[in-house]
Amino acid sequence: MIDASRPNVILVNAGPHAHGCTDRALCEVAAALEDNGVAADIFWVGTKPLASCTACKRCDKLGKCVFDDRVNEFNAIVRDYDGIVLGSPVHFGAATGAATAFFDRAFYSLRRSMGDDGFRMKVGAAVASCRRAGNTATIDQLNRYFQLLQMPIATSRYWNIVHGATAEEVERDAEGLQAMRFLGANMAFLIKAIRAAREAGIELPAQEPTAYTNFIR
User: Fold this and answer.
1) DSSP code per residue over 167-187
2) DSSP state of 52
3) DSSP letter assigned to residue 127
4) How many CB atoms lie within 10 A of CB 21?
5) How many whole angstroms separate alpha carbon 37 and alpha carbon 6?
6) Residues 9, 11: Cα–Cα separation, whole Å
7) Could you tell me if 102 and 26 are in contact, meaning their C-beta atoms sit under 8 angstroms apart?
8) In the chain, what percentage of residues exceed pLDDT 70?
9) Selected residue with higher pLDDT from 63 and 28
10) Cα–Cα distance measured from residue 3 to residue 39, given in angstroms and rounded to the nearest whole number
């Protein structure tokens, strides 16, 4: 049960290993969040096969994805969190196939069931782990989910990346782990600032009706 009186963040490990490189990075972020008064929970996507989004749009009526798997388990709890960290290892220069399928379906069905502003002003952050390269492309990919839903993006003093082929190697990436700590502290500040603004009666910017424009006439 989430304590709504305390700021909280869910960190998603979309790597194939429950305690691999991505998890080691997320644990460092989680520890920094906790040190700054924000509760942190880690959600592992797992290794079961995940279908990609089929754009069936049945989530409009169901309020969840038509494929009843870890995506719906995540969607059932994520609404109650103030922030979301998406973590993925780099596979072939991008986020993993499982990460892409999971996040595509999760964010699409959440947006369809909650509306365009259902996640507005929840704070987001992306973390990538890699052996050598492809990390910044992966972060750019993951950040697009937040940009679609009007979510402020937390940053660090460097890109949110760690290097290593194993969790033990990540442990030796002093700069990478420091970046995770900066990220956790900065994210905690943003979340608390947004909460304080709401408590002070500062209203969110007014919204216009969504305008959809197709480019083929």
Assistant:
1) HHHHHT-HHHHHHHHHHHHHH
2) P
3) E
4) 29
5) 8
6) 6
7) no
8) 99
9) 28
10) 9
Tell me how many degrees the CA angle 204-31-86 measures, rounded to the nearest 5. 55
Between CA 122 and CA 195 the distance in angstroms is 10
Q: What pLDDT is stored for residue 217 in this prediction?
A: 67
* pLDDT higher than threshold 80 for residue 1: no
The pLDDT value given to residue 112: 87
Strands 83-91 and 94-95: what pairing?
Answer: antiparallel
Q: What is the pLDDT of residue 89?
A: 98
Q: Strand, coil or helix: what is 33?
A: helix
pLDDT band with cut points at 50, 70 and 90 for residue 5: confident
Determine the distance from the C-alpha atom of residue 39 to the mean position of all C-alpha atoms in its chain, rounded to a whole number.
15
* Residue 91, strand partner residues: 94
- How many whole angstroms separate alpha carbon 181 and alpha carbon 132? 21
With pLDDT > 90 as the criterion, what percentage of the chain qualifies? 86
Model pTM above 0.90: yes
- 19-46 mean pLDDT: 98
**Helix 21-35 × helix 174-199 angle, to 10°:** 40
Asked if 117 and 79 count as a contact pair (C-beta separation under 8 A), the reply is no
Burial of 85 (0-12, 13-18, 19+ CB in 10 A): buried
C-beta of residue 23 within 8 angstroms of C-beta of residue 42:
yes
